[in-house]
Amino acid sequence: MRPIITAFAAAPDRGQGQARDMRVRWALEEAGQPYDVRLLSFAQMREPAHLAIQPFGQIPTYEDGAVALFETGAILLHIAERHRSLLPVDAVARARALSWMFAAINTVEPPIVEREMAELVERDKPWFDARLPALDAHVRKRIDALSASLDDAEWLAGAFSVADIMMVTVLRRLDGWNLLETCPNLMAYVARGEERPAFRRAFDAQYAVFLASGAR
Ligand code: GTB
After folding, report:
1. Orientation of helix 91-103 relative to helix 162-171, angle to 10°
2. Span from the CA of 35 to the centroid of ligand 1 (angstroms)
3. Phi, psi (5° rounding) for residue 64?
4. 152 CA distance to ligand 1 centroid (A)?
5. Could you read off the pLDDT of 110-145 as tens digits, one per residue?
6. Residue 213 near residue 9, CB atoms below 8 Å
7. Domain 87-196 part of CATH 1.25.40.10
8. Could you identify the atom of ligand 1 that is nearest to the CA of residue 14?
9. Which residue, among 91, 100, 116, 96, has the nearest Cα to 13 in the 3D structure?
10. Separation of 92 CA from ligand 1 center, angstroms?
11. Using an 8 Å Cβ cutoff, are 186 and 180 in contact?
12. Ligand 1 pocket test: which of 6, 16, 58 has the largest number of ligand atoms within 8 Å of its C-beta?
């Protein structure tokens, strides 16, 4: 049975590949696992059928036979457990890769999301300009530490893994902020991820949804 994932019918990012179904699509493409996509409007995301799978009314979700998952960390772990190429076989290396995957979601992504939210809802507030340097500093603290850890390695935990899918998609959210520019190794790391054929296929599939929604 082909897994079914959910995604925005009309993504607010206008085809930039930023919505979180991108990381699920990329993992499935790396795994060579064909999948179907159920596109949802914001209204459909609030309907009981979707809330039964995603209690917060968000995308993406993942369904595969009896399994119905939400949270991209859980979904990527599930995919990686079924496709050996996405996590090291050695238990110690695998645990290390998982630490990096959760670091991407729990440590690196939150200050990025906090800054995004401030741009979205506080941009016209009188305190926004004064607050921005502190938001940037929080993001910078995380990416500087990540940059030092990655050093000149190709990927975070030996061979390419779900940790890299998660981290690259998180770092891509910095596009346009000029924060990554002081970390050339992270810029090269993101570029390496984006050059992978599986990333390209995932991006093109999400972009096709954007084109179709614009045409409606
Ligand atoms: N912790 C959850 C996970 O990892 O699965 C978070 C899921 C999540 O934030 N989903 C977002 C969502 O459904 C879409 S991806 N939001 C609607 C809602 O909460 O009502 C986040 C996202 C949205 C839009 C852009 N963009 O336009 O650039 C980027 C990222």
Report:
1. 20
2. 20
3. -155, 95
4. 31
5. 999 999 999 999 999 999 999 999 999 999 999 999
6. yes
7. no
8. 27
9. 116
10. 32
11. yes
12. 58
Cα–Cα distance, 94 to 59 (Å, whole number): 27
> From the CA of 20, how far away is ligand 1's center (Å)?
6
Q: How much is the average pLDDT of 173-179?
A: 92
Closest-CA residue, ligand 1 atom 21, reads: 19
Domain ranges of the chain: 4-85+198-213, 87-196
Give the homologous superfamily in CATH for domain 4-85+198-213. Glutaredoxin (3.40.30.10)
Pocket of ligand 1 (CB under 6 A): 12-13, 18-20, 57-59, 71-72
Packing angle of the helix pair 72-82, 21-31 (nearest 10 deg): 0
Is residue 215 predicted with pLDDT exceeding 50? no
Atom from ligand 1 closest to the CA of residue 20: 15
Q: How much of the chain, in percent, has pLDDT values that exceed 70?
A: 99
Query: Tens digit of pLDDT for each residue in 143-163?
Result: 999 999 999 999 999 999 999
What gap in Å lies between CA 187 and CA 74, rounded to an integer?
A: 27
Distance (Å) from CA 151 to ligand 1 centroid = 30
